[in-house]
Amino acid sequence: MESIRIVEFFKNKSILVTGSTGFLAKIFVEKVLRVQPEVKKLFLLVRAGDAASANQRVQTEILEKDLFKVLKDKHGDGFHSFVTSKLFPLAGDIVQEDLGIHDSDLRRNLWKEVEVVVNVAATTNFDARYDLALGINVLGAKHILEFAKRCVRLEMLLHVSTAFVAGEQSGLILEKRFLMGETLKGDSYLDIEAELSLADKKKRELRAEDATEEAEKLAMKELGIKRAKLFGWPNTYVFTKAMGEMLLGHSRGDLPMVILRPTIITSVQSEPLPGWIEGTRTIDSVLIGYAKGTITCFFGDLDIIMDVVPGDMVVNAMMATMAAHAKQQAEFIYHMGSSVRSPVSYATLEHCGFRYFLANPRVRRDGSVIQTRRLPFIKSMVGFRVFMTLRYKLPLEVMHLVNLLSCGRLARGYNELNRKYKFMMYLVDLYKPYVYFDGCFDDLNMERLRMAMKKDDVEAKMFDFDPKHIDWEDYFSSIHIPGVMKYAFK
Fold it and tell me: Where is the Thioester reductase (TE) domain (predicted)?
């Protein structure tokens, strides 16, 4: 692979970004503006009803974030004029054809101008409504591809997927593409059109039955999980992301395309703002639950390797793969993770979390300090279910009996506790595949790219995506956990 000039690649480029108000897209937009101020235009697709609403969302949900402080300090009073000349919000929706951009003149201008398309839009909820996940993760990918094909100057389509499209495979998982209709269970065949029709039919049936909004939501969530497990995936999110990849690979033609598959994305490690994060990432649910005192024990084997990667490294890899493969009429698959090159166990995170809360005790609303104790982890799933039965389920059954004998006096309390118990066990089933995940993601393609990057020391440092450079204990203790407490803990 020849040497790569990333900064030069983005000079004078017009780039269309979807999912632009999301965590990863914000980091990407900030990085491009900071390292290549001569980028021509960044068209930011925003789900909005009109241009004014799109502009407002970009202002409040992107530019006002702490992430952009370095850029603001760099430009000073000229920051507003600078971003106004570079960022162009677009009201639209990838669920719709033509990305929901209804102005035909605007569409034609985009098809003439756009040279790079970056698709970061996704619904990442494990148990998203099936119709919603199909719309964004599957049809959205299809609509992005159709739009990209009409861009006459297109050099690259980058699609961000997830490494966990591999499902619950174990061992070394290769960077290979999905074939159309491929499943993770035996010789079954996945008909994507049939899945779209099934979800639509189910929704129409529910509405014909006058199902409540909540009942419809629950039924569509359950349908997604059921269909995912039928074909070998653990949840709706990774199932629909796999389908999106299939559609892209099958219909790409000769379009230059990179599919980047990150593992679990965590807070910014280096720049522009170490520790910055939005939302609750997979591993942070336990940290936040522990900080709030709502989690008193958890399940999992602390010796298992967790595959995590900081958000800024993912963005650096995005930019490097785009520059490396622009105008190459092929499909390239990359894993972006740490399990092969820089493995870290859950025990490291647990240890760092314990040390952090010892030094930074949690405080109740009344001002009293919560004593910091190690969070007990129950290694086996069977053992955890036994614990939950003895600690919660049996007392609930006793409460139910007392409620019946007292003519329903405890009904409200029982129903609330029972709902919480069932919801927690539902979450346990959702997270179980990741807590006990026993695979590691081969990153040979990414390693070849790293080797090519070493030919330019300046860019190799500016766009570092080598997890070997991460001191995990320092990252978790000094950067990630403080970042979660500052930006995600409410």
Answer: 17-318
